[in-house]
Amino acid sequence: MANFDVVLLDLDGTVYHEDHPLPGAVELIRKFQREQRRFACLSNSAGSPLRVMNRLNAMGVDLPPDSIYTAAAAACDYVLEHFPLAAPGQTKPRVFDLATESIREMLDGLVIWVQSGGEPCDVVLSGAPSNAHATEERQRIALQLLRHGASLVALCADRVYPSPRGLEFGSGAHAAMLAYAANVKPFFCGKPDKVFFMELCHRLKVEPSRCVLIGDNIESDVFGANAVNMATILVLSGVTRRRDLQQLPPDRQPDMVVENLMELLDSK
Question: For residue range 242-263, what is the model confidence (pLDDT) as tens digits?
Answer without folding.
Answer: 999 998 999 899 999 999 999 9
